């Protein structure tokens, strides 16, 4: 008989990582930290995937930047594609947050979810549940493709999506791992899925005839790599016409068969320069990749030159293309000047392009921070900006972006939500990059004047910020925030006392259960 008179201490509940997990891995659930989960994932058989991510998406010279869950990016790519179903496997809280955010940004379809427990995770039943879910959804009347995504815990546990069949009932099945401890930003997670789809499509095309795209240009096309404002591809097509070229599909695409047309492009324009996995597939298909974009006068002239040379256009054709568009861009820039000092930061990947356009519009831009990494396809923009005296910071952290606002004292700060919040708290006008800057054309004459209206309107708000700052002066912050009859007194000893009590309570709660 077991003696139950003396209390026994039960180990805290933990999600087991894998049946063969080494000693010490029992703390590797989603609370275990990035390094712990990364080690567990490698020991569970995902070394190849994580090594590829470390090479494709290096985090140096700075630590991983603060961004939303990276899986949001790949999820959005799948949800935007026609006849594509999406299944997530991960912690319920993560799936809830991802689906909520996706629908907030306009998703109009359901997201599949395969839940798990400690038992299904360590016994391998989770993989069988995923396979069963895919089999139930694989209806060729509804879908061309099903995308299955492992989030952090299934990736750390080694759930082997690579063992899923390539197709079921004629429906393609693509499994990807998008852990927060392996993919730095949601922008790069878009590349994870886009690259996986391009690889699948390229292998299909190598095996035989494939479905023709709904729309196909009657001349060689330029594939555009990176999400952009819908009007930009139209403007790019007009710029390319004198070169005998057309604007091709935009990758990530909105339909599977567009992937074949993208792979068939005469040249690939890496408008967003961080799509490393996608570039690898284009280069495997024998395509040349060109960096930068037709932004501003200088950027457009250099980009048309590079595209023309890559496609064998004559010097006369390149000159004709430049002469046809550059005067209009010059006129648009002169018609809507921007005057003021502006810092730029964000995590979309187009931050350097926006900074170029602002500078050509007349703005003083001392700092550009991007959460994305430096690549050889961003070098043309980096070199142009640095020649203008701009500090370009790749893999920028929130703290560095805020420090730039403090250092340069801009008239306007363009950045992520916390950067905007910090600037406005200082009485500095600020604009949220994703919603207010990315939602405008950047290329050609349309892009040349597109930022001026919103930027100049924000610059003109400085007087309003000064009035608000003066009005709320003395309201207080921290322990004294709010409006009081008597000024509050800070009591640091109380804080220390309750902090110690909270720490003891947390330890006790972890050891509960006997």
Question: What would you say this structure looks like, in words?
Answer:
There is one protein chain. The protein is α/β, with parallel strands linked by helices and 514 residues long. The chain has 3 domains: 34-184, Rossmann fold, CATH 3.40.50; 221-331, 3-Layer(aba) Sandwich (Rossmann fold); 336-470, Rossmann fold. Helix content is 47%, strand content 12%. The protein has 21 helices and 14 strands. Strands 2-1-3-5-4 form a 5-stranded mixed beta sheet, with helices on both faces. The chain has a 5-stranded parallel beta sheet with strand order 12-11-10-13-14, with helices on both faces. Strands 7-6-8-9 form a 4-stranded parallel beta sheet. A hairpin with a 2-residue loop joins strand 4 and strand 5. Helix 11 runs antiparallel to helix 12 (315-335), helix 13 runs parallel beside helix 14 (379-387) and helix 15 (398-408) packs parallel to helix 16. The radius of gyration is 26 Å and the shape is flat.
- Top-tier CATH class of the largest domain: Alpha Beta
Q: In which order are the strands of the major sheet placed?
A: 2-1-3-5-4
Low-confidence stretches: 1-28
Helix content: 40-55%
Instruction: Sketch the major β-sheet.
Output: 5 strands, mixed
| Individual helix count | 21
Structural class given helices, strands, pairing? alpha/beta
What would CATH call the architecture of the largest domain? 3-Layer(aba) Sandwich
CATH topology call of the largest domain: Rossmann fold
Distance between the termini: 17 Å
Q: Give the rounded overall mean pLDDT.
A: 88
Percent of residues in beta strands? 5-15%
For the record, what is the CATH homologous superfamily label of the largest domain?
Nitrogenase molybdenum iron protein domain
Supply Rg.
26 Å
Number of domains: 3
Please tally the β strands and state the result.
Answer: 14
Q: Please tell me what the overall shape is.
A: flat
């Amino acid at each position: 008989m077991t003696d139950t008179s003396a209390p026994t201490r039960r180990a805290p509940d933990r999600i087991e990582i894998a049946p063969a997990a080494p000693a010490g891995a029992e703390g590797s659930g989603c609370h275990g930290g990035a390094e712990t989960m990364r080690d567990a994932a490698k020991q569970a058989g995902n070394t190849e995937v994580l090594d590829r991510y470390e090479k494709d998406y290096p985090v140096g010279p700075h630590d991983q930047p603060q961004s939303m869950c990276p899986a949001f990016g790949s999820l959005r790519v799948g949800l935007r594609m026609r006849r594509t179903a999406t299944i997530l496997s991960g912690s319920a809280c993560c799936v809830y947050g991802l689906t909520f955010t996706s629908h907030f940004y306009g998703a109009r379809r359901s997201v599949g979810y395969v839940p798990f427990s400690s038992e299904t995770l360590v016994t391998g039943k989770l993989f069988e549940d995923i396979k069963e879910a895919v089999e139930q959804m694989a209806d060729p009347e509804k879908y061309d493709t099903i995308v299955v995504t492992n989030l952090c815990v299934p990736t750390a546990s080694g759930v082997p999506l690579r063992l899923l069949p390539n197709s079921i009932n004629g429906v393609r099945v693509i499994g990807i791992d998008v852990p927060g401890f392996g993919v730095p930003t949601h922008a790069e997670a878009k590349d994870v899925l886009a690259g996986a789809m391009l690889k699948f499509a390229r292998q299909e095309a190598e095996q035989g005839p494939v479905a023709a795209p709904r729309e196909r240009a009657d001349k060689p096309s330029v594939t555009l790599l990176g999400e952009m404002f819908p009007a930009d591809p139209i403007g790019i097509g007009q710029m390319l016409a004198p070169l005998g070229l057309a604007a091709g599909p935009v990758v990530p695409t909105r339909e599977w068969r567009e992937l074949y047309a993208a792979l068939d492009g005469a040249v690939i324009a890496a408008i967003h320069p961080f799509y490393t996995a996608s570039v690898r597939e284009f280069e495997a298909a024998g395509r040349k990749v060109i960096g930068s974009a037709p932004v501003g006068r200088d950027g457009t002239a250099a980009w048309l030159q590079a595209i023309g040379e890559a496609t064998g256009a004559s010097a006369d054709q390149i000159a004709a293309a430049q002469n046809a568009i550059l005067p209009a861009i010059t006129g648009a820039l002169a018609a809507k000047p921007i005057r003021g000092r502006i810092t730029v930061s964000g995590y979309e990947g187009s931050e350097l392009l926006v900074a170029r356009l602002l500078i050509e519009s007349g703005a003083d831009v001392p700092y550009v921070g991007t959460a994305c990494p430096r690549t050889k396809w961003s070098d043309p923009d980096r070199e142009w900006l640095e020649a203008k005296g701009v500090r370009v910071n790749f893999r920028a952290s929130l703290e560095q972006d805020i420090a730039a606002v403090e250092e340069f004292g801009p008239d306007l700060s363009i950045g992520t939500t916390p950067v905007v919040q910090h600037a406005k708290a200082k009485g500095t006008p600020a604009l949220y990059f994703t919603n207010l800057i990315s939602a405008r054309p950047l290329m050609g004459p349309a892009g040349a004047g597109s930022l001026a209206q919103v930027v100049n309107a924000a610059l003109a708000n400085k007087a309003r910020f000064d009035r608000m700052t003066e009005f709320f002066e003395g309201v207080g912050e921290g322990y004294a925030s709010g409006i009081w009859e008597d000024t509050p007194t800070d009591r640091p000893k109380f804080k220390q006392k309750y902090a110690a009590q909270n720490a003891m309570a947390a330890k006790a709660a972890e050891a509960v259960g006997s």
